[in-house]
Amino acid sequence: MGASPVYLKQFEIGPMQNFAYLLGDPERRECFVVDPAWDAEGIFNRAASDRMKITGVILTHAHYDHANVAAEILRKIGGKIYVNEEEVRFLEKFAANSGGIFCNVASMDTVAVRDNEKIKIGGVEVRCLHTPGHTPGSQCLLAGKNLITGDTLFVDYCGRCDLFGGDPAKMHESLSRKLAKLEEDVVLYPGHHYSDRPTSTLGEEKKTNPYLKALTFQEFTRALRGLLD
């Protein structure tokens, strides 16, 4: 029996060019929201327009601009929110020092997931890849040939490493040792609309994205200085 087809809806939302996603099983009409922010009603309306039922939430990371309506959505659906275990541990220890840029996932019905753990949405399997660097518990979500990257990897860029909890060395490792090893026809779906196109492929990004192309940490930091200047 083959894998279930993947339902994936990308939409730009809010004042910071965020992308949120609906991800799930088109046959069972069931989906999760990935990185729900800014407009809970609009997110529900998008799901309803495709006759999809939202049954859970997944975060690529817990920054406010990716999760500020997560609690509202969970209250309406009675579901759970899936967050990487390192993000949960970090927030339990350092949330008071984060300057308010993180959402309080501890107040929600949270499931801490491990690196390479698989989540089922209906018959669709989503593999969670731990990719620290932007935050300690950033993760990317692989469903079939679709990769939702949050603020780890953008089209043409990578995420910032200079915010609270960021780590340039870990970001380089996440890009070079994990994402760059995936198949070239995997389609990249980023966390923000920062480029001239909303998606790309890993094959294209390996050719043109200086942060993904960087083989050494020295090359990566040189590229990163250009991003921060």
Q: Outline of this structure?
A:
The chain is of the alpha/beta class and 229 residues long. The protein has one domain: Ribonuclease Z/Hydroxyacylglutathione hydrolase-like (Metallo-beta-lactamase, Chain A), CATH 3.60.15. It contains eight helices and twelve strands.
What features would you highlight for this structure?
229 residues, globular, alpha/beta, six-stranded mixed beta sheet, 12 strands, 8 helices, Metallo-beta-lactamase, Chain A, 27% strand
Description:
The protein is α/β, with parallel strands linked by helices and 229 residues long. It has a single domain, classed as 4-Layer Sandwich (Metallo-beta-lactamase, Chain A). The chain has helices at residues 40-49, 64-67, 70-77, 85-94, 168-178, 202-208, 210-213, 217-228, and strands at residues 7-13, 18-25, 30-34, 53-58, 81-84, 110-113, 118-121, 124-130, 139-143, 146-150, 187-190, 200-201. The strands form 2 sheets. A 6-stranded mixed sheet has the order 1-2-3-4-5-6. A 6-stranded mixed sheet has the order 7-8-9-10-11-12. The longest helix is centred in the C-terminal third of the chain and has 12 residues, at 217-228. It is globular and about 45 Å long. The protein starts with 6 loop residues before the first strand and ends with a helix.
List low-confidence stretches.
Answer: none
Instruction: Specify the helix fraction band.
Output: 25-40%
**Which CATH architecture?**
4-Layer Sandwich
| Class by alpha and beta content | alpha/beta
Shape: globular
User: Beta-strand percentage?
Assistant: 25-35%
- Identify the strand order in the major beta sheet: 1-2-3-4-5-6
